[in-house]
Amino acid sequence: MIGFSAVANTLHALGAVVWVGGMFFAHMALRPSVAVLDPPQRLNLWAEVFPRFFAWVWVAVITLNASGFGTVFVDFGGFASAGVYVHAMAGTGVLMSLIFAYIFFVPYRAFRARVGVSDWPAAAAAQAAIRRLVATNLVLGLVTVVLGAGGRLME
Ligand code: HEM
Question: What range does the domain containing 122 cover?
Answer without folding.
Answer: 4-154
